[in-house]
Amino acid sequence: AALVRETVRTREPGQDPATRSFQALRIHINQELRQLEIALPQALGLLKPGGRLVVICFHSLEDRIVKNFMRNESVADDLPKGLPLRADQLPKPKLRLLGKPVKPSAAEIAANPRARSAVMRVAEKL
User: Fold this and answer.
1) Per-residue model confidence as pLDDT tens digits over 3-15
2) Start-end ranges of CATH 3.40.50.150 in the chain?
3) What is the DSSP string of the chain?
4) Distance (Å, rounded) from C-alpha 34 to C-alpha 112?
5) Rounded to an integer, what is the distance from CA 81 to the centroid of its chain?
6) What is the pLDDT of residue 123?
7) Alpha carbon distance 27, 30 (integer Å)
8) Of 30, 33, 19, 2, nearest to 113 (Cα)?
């Protein structure tokens, strides 16, 4: 940790530069991003219609995966025009996004500094 502190500049005042380095090692070793990619479709499959998928991310790599998953599942697949399909045969979206991403307030961050990077996204299964 001392070597990282001597080598890496601090991005935010009050944040230990070694934090990001050890976070990156933990994410890689535990395959956290891959596990998230596996868990999201499984979670969607477990929900009943009307069930809500709520995910809190603590860094941008996680949030990007969650955002893209929810966005992709909230639109129907594009099909070529002119296919002889009835409306009930067209693919339907699996999720409906509920509101905008929720971020912690200044008061919450003051009470819990670890919440500063949290983002919560919510979607409802259709």
Assistant:
1) 777 777 776 676 7
2) 32-125
3) -HHHHHHSPPSSTTS-HHHHHHHHHHHHHTTHHHHHHHHHHHHHHHPPTT-EEEEEESSHHHHHHHHHHHHHHTSPPP--TT----GGGS---SEEE-SSPB---HHHHHH-GGGGG-EEEEEEE-
4) 28
5) 33
6) 99
7) 5
8) 19
Specify the fold of 32-125.
Rossmann fold (3.40.50)
Query: Residue 126 carries which side chain, given as an amino acid letter?
Result: L
- Does 87 score more than 80 pLDDT? no
Residue whose pair of structure tokens reads 């596990």 in the numeric block: 35
pTM score of the predicted model: 0.82
Distances (CA, A) of 42 to 15, 73, 99: 35, 13, 23
